[in-house]
Amino acid sequence: MTETTTGLLKLGREYGAHNYHPLPVVAAEAEGAWVTDVEGRRYLDMLAAYSALNFGHRHPRLIAAARRQLDQLTLVSRAFEHDQFGPFCAELAELAGMDVVLPMNTGAEAVETAIKVARKWGYTVKGVPAGQAVIIAFEGNFHGRTTTIVSFSTDPDARADFGPYTPGFRVVPYGDLDATAAAVAELGDRVVAVLVEPIQGEAGVVVPPPGFLAGIRSLCTQQNILMIADEIQSGLGRTGHTFACAAEDVVPDAYLLGKALGGGIVPVSAMVSSWPVLGVLQPGQHGSTFGGNPLACAVAREVVAMLRTGEYQARARVLGQRFHARLGALPGVGAVRGRGLWAGVEFTSLPGREVCERLTARGVLAKETHGNVIRLAPPLVISEEDLDWGLSQIEAAIRD
Ligand SMILES: *Cc1c(COP(=O)(O)O)cnc(C)c1O
Which of 36, 90, 336, 345 is the most core-located residue (most Cβ within 10 A)? Predict the structure, then answer.
């Protein structure tokens, strides 16, 4: 087998489905913020797997936790309890300031869990007539790839030709509190939940106007609607807070977590909420073979322990200020959005793909989102020197 980049790329294209359009890098190993490809070239990772690598590649604490668990127990299914399950749920619930945790694997599954729980809560607690529940979501949303989730996507690539679509969703403009209130007024007691990303990652790191999240919170409280915050990308330190909702002092009725919860090692997701909400589920009504498995719980417990120190949130806050100040001063940049170590950089004329290709050649990994926007989310463990170097490569790439 060819070990060269071109050979491996060709193999992937020949035998792997074309549902992604990867940049021409074939990674072989990585540590911290740095990735080495099959030819020994090094790259600074300024994407961090869309925040799944918040703690960098192969963080020693996380690798040690995984190794310990690999030598003990990896899977029992939820037919039995194991010694990591209770502690994981308790520790994550405490970090989130909530009562109860329902673990799943991927982010999409956490979102599906929330949709099912919100509907069941609507019928059994709120008293919505059978089959009438509506969940409000927002234009530009990204919540995953299942048939139900793409049913309320507004991205034609994500949605077209995958119907028939799941009913029961109303989509309103993101950041528009009046439109949200109008939808609630029109739909009345049928509305069971508002599903919101505190910052929209996939849409290009879109930050809603101040007061939006707080407004959604009070609307939901007044109308007896669940506010469900999809913090799968925004949560766990990225924005300088454990949860992005905290920037507006908002506490939702449920957090959806994923990506960084698995420490870049295993997929771990969760819905974290209160007993009145998650308590609607009885045995047999929802589940997952791998959800809450021992390896996942052991790694996620270490993630929670690391977040409890506040060190990573602080790094995101402090380095984030430097990051945004320097990005804002770059030539050819129209707008810089985001918070903490997370940015959507909109170029005035350069296509995002072009910038990312130039960056790859310069040893920096980043990813375009839509049109002229690139997304930057370096690992929170990145050093100040490396961050500065990465930013200078972005500046050079713009001038290339
Ligand atoms: C990535 C993401 C998801 C889906 O997670 P998967 O693990 O890819 O299924 C859902 N919501 C948000 C906000 C995300 O960024």
Answer: 345
